[in-house]
Amino acid sequence: MSAEKQDQLRVAGVRYLNARPLWEDLKSDPRIALSLEIPREVQRMLAEDEADVALMPVAGAATLGDVFFVPNMAIAARGPVQSVLLVSEVPLEKLEEVALDLSSRTSVVLAKLILAHRNIRVRFTDLDPTTARTPQEMREAVAPVVRGTRGAVIIGDPALAIADAFPYRLDLAEAWQEWKGLPFVFAAWCTRNPNFAASDVARLQAAKTAGLALRDALAEEHAAAHSLSPAILARYLHESIRYELGDAEIQGLTAFFDEAYRAGLLPKTEVRFTAPLANRPLTPVPLETLLGRAAAGERLSVAEGERLLAEASLFELGLAADEVRKRKHPHGVVTYIVDRNVNYTNVCTTSCRFCAFYRPVGHPEGYVLSREVLGQKLQEVVDAGGVQILLQGGLNPELPLTWYEDLFRWMKAEYKLGLHALSPEEIIHISELENISTAEVLERLHAAGLDSVPGGGAEILVDRVRRRIAKTKCSSEAWLGVMRTAHRMGLRSSATMMYGTTETARERVLHLAKIRDLQDETGGFTAFFCWDFQYENGVRIEPGDTGTHLYLRQQALARLMLDNVDHIGASWVTQGPDVGQVALRFGADDFGSVMFEENVVSSAGTTFGINAAGMETRIREAGFKSARRNVRYDWLTPPL
């Protein structure tokens, strides 16, 4: 990297019109490396150290926890904002469902708070942020979602373009003002550096001054590009949006954080500033207080999770996680499932540096299981009273979508087993092979018999790590996107994490936060499992932090962070049954699967095995009752 690029300030900004006055003047500054994205991506860039400062949703600041606001700059409103709306065909009190634009978590949380305050109970679904440009395109994108008793929250430029298309509109900033008598802050400049340079603060403030003088010109340019009224957009920038973060705005922001914390939607958050307002020392919450809040089920920020992982003792973490388990599962029952992990092919094009299982295309040891071999394996599961097949494999370019459809139909017709099949990575591979969307792949597989989606291939959902361990792996957002689509269709899935390669402790916590955020959106994850990298000579990456001690700490932290995921599974396959028993006192309430066979982990030399009777014995010895389950965690046998 050149010295010039190293000296650049990395700035991430929301690309909507209302944000342009804060970053427009930065575009031509050679000292600034400016990236413009949707709000969710801006938050990710700051979290993963791809930006030094970010104009991001304030809810993202609460989620991260170690964020400082840059003084006196924000995107706020002291009344109607016009660009964050709940639209519908019927009055609010008649709504049964609301689709949420998930590109900005702040607006999602605000909508939930406003509806709860008005005692309006609805189901929440998700609405993809529209990429349409003209008002007509935006109407066509949103109008099918808003039907009858289903409304939608739309934000940013689409809201400006199509607000008049619906008979009922609730301006969420105006509703907040009526409720609290305070302004609402949607976004602000944020940094993770409490000593953010005064010269950089001054540069952002100068950009704000210059940008406010350009509001009329920005309105005209945006209006021309989107076939909108320049006068309306100018009034929006001059009157609806306020760009100050003054005393009233700080009070409104504090009130929002407090309400969201009480509702369990955001972690407990204090509004903190960089210099020159950062004139009082930070006093961290005592560790025992933080552990108590975690044990009580309060939502933790990324920074709080990172602190617990670093500072809390093994037994303190275990006790807190066990409290959460007991509250979520008060009957003292630990479940397990009788299924079989079948790896239908080991041929793969991803070349993960940590994988000892895969073989490249054309390798003499590459295989695709025949129907005869598969049939023998499936019949053994049926004979043992099993209920499911976990079917995963490599990314084999010789297997088209029709191969999977035919296979699924045959498996369902002949063996009547549940199909927990194909990780997001495999779904993406098939979509690219067939040149169709992942949604179409999932729809066709679901029609052919797919019941649920396993969480394989997640590893660590931070792209820096993913690029290091497998350059061709899908991005974290792509992995999450497949799960989001599957959940929309009614498919459930598991979530996983493989750690112990090149990731940091913070990146493991960021992974958990991404799982939690998606679970807030969809509610589609049934359970979470984590395990460490199983190293073997011959793989192309050295192990990082692993071992039993870290496994128990990491699992316990997962139970504390994932407040919205019901089940945590013990990873005895990698740690051994003895550690699996101990894990039941570190937040786990599930003992996983009877192991007929396992090929991926065992390729690295880890070969633990246990049958159903052994599982039940282990569970009872640990002080619990055991029950068999299905993929949705329904009990199939009475707890004994």
Structure report:
It contains 26 helices and 20 strands. It has 640 residues and is α/β, with parallel strands linked by helices. The chain folds into three domains: 3-76 and 186-262, D-Maltodextrin-Binding Protein, domain 2; 84-180, Periplasmic binding protein-like II (D-Maltodextrin-Binding Protein, domain 2, 3-Layer(aba) Sandwich), CATH 3.40.190.10; 319-628, Alpha-Beta Barrel (TIM Barrel). The strands form five sheets. It has a five-stranded mixed β-sheet. β17 (525-532), α23 (548-561) and β18 (567-569) form a beta-alpha-beta unit.
In short:
This protein has 640 residues and is of the alpha/beta class. Helix content is 42%, strand content 17%.
Say which CATH homologous superfamily of the largest domain is assigned. Answer: Aldolase class I
Quaternary structure type: single chain
Overall 3D form: globular
Discrete helix count:
26
**Can you give the mean pLDDT?**
90
Major sheet summary line: 5 strands, mixed
Number of strands: 20
Per DSSP, what share of the residues sits in E-state strands of 2 or more residues? 15-25%
Give the name of the CATH architecture of the largest domain: Alpha-Beta Barrel
Map the helices and strands.
Elements: H1 3-7, E1 9-14, H2 20-23, E2 32-37, H3 39-47, E3 53-57, H4 58-64, E4 68-77, E5 84-88, E6 97-101, H5 105-117, E7 123-127, H6 135-142, E8 150-155, H7 157-162, E9 168-171, H8 172-180, E10 184-191, H9 198-212, H10 215-226, H11 230-240, H12 247-262, H13 287-295, H14 302-311, H15 314-328, E11 333-337, E12 339-343, H16 371-383, E13 388-392, H17 401-415, E14 418-421, H18 424-434, H19 438-448, E15 452-453, H20 463-469, H21 476-488, E16 492-499, H22 505-522, E17 525-532, H23 548-561, E18 567-569, H24 572-575, H25 577-583, E19 590-593, H26 612-621, E20 625-628
Parallel strand pairs: 1-2, 1-3, 6-7, 6-8, 11-19, 11-20, 12-13, 13-14, 15-16, 16-17, 17-18
Antiparallel strand pairs: 3-10, 4-10, 5-8, 5-9
Helix pairs in contact: 5-8, 10-11, 13-15, 14-22, 15-23, 17-19, 18-19, 18-21, 21-22
